[in-house]
Specification:
The complex is a heterodimer of chains A (about 240) and B (about 170). With about 240 residues, chain A is α+β, with helices and mostly antiparallel strands. Chain A has 5 helices and 16 strands. Helix content of chain A is about 20%, strand content about 30%. In chain A, the strands form 4 sheets. In chain A, strands 8-9-10-12-11 form a 5-stranded mixed beta barrel. A 4-stranded mixed beta sheet of chain A has the order 1-6-7-3, with no helix packed on it. With about 170 residues, chain B is mostly helical. The chains are: A alpha+beta (about 240), B mainly alpha (about 170).
């Protein structure tokens, strides 16, 4: 069914390109015909029986049947289940308003923290950083965040960020940082003891032993955006030798 | 005309207290009519039947399942041990399995089998004491002094009245 995708893998596609599945529906009698499902990730959207491209980028594929567009952008669009770094901007009644970098502020209920009850409110102030994930995120509704998983545990989510440094990078760099066996991370973890919080919305928070070290790590990560692997390794080596 | 006027109305016949005197035929007739009224009043949409087609295209708005992205908190070189524990917990199975193997090896060195056995040995004794009666307890104390291993055969004979011999 998705042979039309197969020959486009790795090619650059533009918004408006379309795939339709009607061309290759020649059912052979020998094969067992079974319906194959296609999962289209970010950058692809379904329109009836066809799939439209809605972001420009490279078509990627993951076994068995997942396709998405690998694109560069800085504007975050909330997606359900993604963990992000938010900044609390207001307290209103029983919800906090949280800025996540999307088109709209997200709400975060004060009950959506580990161990929170109606009596026992979490200690969250305006301006605090929260690491949280979306449970509602679609284009028609206000996004909603929680700081607990389905079992009610925090698992590292919640208020954080004393003595660290927050900065913004592109969404592409965030994905490179979070990728399994990421080469940036493997270079960084040899360098110096530090702690990182990476939100899918492009915010990265860094903390290291001292303010200087924190800034070094932050600058390194920011400069990773436009560097080749050899350039980056050379820079990391210079930092490790104490050149900066 | 006279016979018509004698006839009772249907609504009256349908009432509970009238049902006793009715014969089977009229009862059946009434029931049928009632059914017809109900089915007539049932309304339905005059639409072509919707065919539930299986949707072969699933949309996914997030990169996380596509690229197998990891958990967003990390710590290196033991900067924040709590987060490093979380990293093992939240990230993939391969890393977790490695950690588990390490756990197993440490577990063996933690408490040796001998130590465990020694501990349970004393536990058996104290649990036994807990469930024993007061009289038995005092007896146990005496026996314990005699028997070190505590695995004597239970002498459960109740103290019975012994007839004085002449």
């Amino acid at each position: 069914m998705y042979s039309c995708f197969k020959d486009k893998i790795g090619e650059v596609l533009l918004p408006g390109d379309e795939f339709s599945f009607e061309t290759d529906e020649t059912i052979s009698l020998t094969d067992t015909v079974k319906a194959e499902k296609v999962v289209c990730g970010p950058g692809l959207r379904r329109n009836g029986d066809q799939v439209l491209v809605c972001k420009s980028g490279v078509l990627r594929h993951k076994q068995p049947n997942m396709f998405w567009i690998d694109s560069q952008q800085r504007r975050y669009v909330p997606a359900k289940g993604e963990s992000v770094i938010g900044i609390v901007t207001a307290k209103s009644g029983d919800v906090f308003k949280v800025d996540v970098g999307g088109s709209e502020q997200a709400t975060l209920s004060y009950l959506a923290f580990e161990g929170a009850t109606k009596r026992n409110r979490p200690n969250v102030q305006v301006g605090d950083l929260v690491f949280c994930q979306f449970i509602i995120a679609n284009k028609d509704m206000e996004p909603e965040l929680v700081c607990i998983d389905s079992a009610g545990r925090a698992n590292g989510m919640g208020v954080f960020g004393a003595g660290g440094f927050l900065f913004r990078v592109s969404l592409g760099l965030v994905r490179r940082l979070l990728a399994p066996r990421s080469d940036i991370i493997s270079d960084l973890e040899k360098l110096l003891p530090c702690e990182l919080v990476v939100g899918m919305n492009g915010r990265v928070w860094v903390k290291a032993g001292s303010v200087q070290q924190t800034l070094v790590v932050a600058n390194l990560l920011e400069s990773c955006e436009n560097m080749t692997a050899p350039q980056r390794q050379a820079l990391f080596r210079r930092v490790a030798q104490g050149a900066l | 005309m006279a016979s018509d006027s004698v006839k009772l109305s249907k609504n009256l016949l349908r009432m509970k207290f009238m049902q006793r005197g009715l014969d089977a035929e009229t009862r059946k007739q009434l029931e049928e009519e009632e059914k017809r009224i109900i089915s007539d009043e049932h309304w339905y949409l005059d639409l072509p039947e919707l065919k539930a087609k299986e949707n072969l295209i699933i949309e996914e708005r997030s990169f996380v399942p596509c690229e197998d992205l990891k958990y967003g908190r990390m710590s290196f070189k033991g900067f924040n041990p709590e987060v490093e524990k979380l990293m093992v917990l939240m990230n993939g199975k391969d890393e977790a399995e490695e950690a588990e193997e390490e756990d197993l090896s440490t577990m063996q060195t933690d408490v040796t089998d001998e130590e465990m056995a020694r501990r349970y040995e004393s536990l058996v004794g104290s649990m036994k004491r807990k469930f024993a009666k007061k009289r038995e307890r005092s007896a146990m104390d005496e026996e314990e002094e005699e028997d070190v291993n505590c695995n004597f055969a239970e002498t459960n004979s109740k103290r019975a009245f012994l007839k004085p011999q002449d």
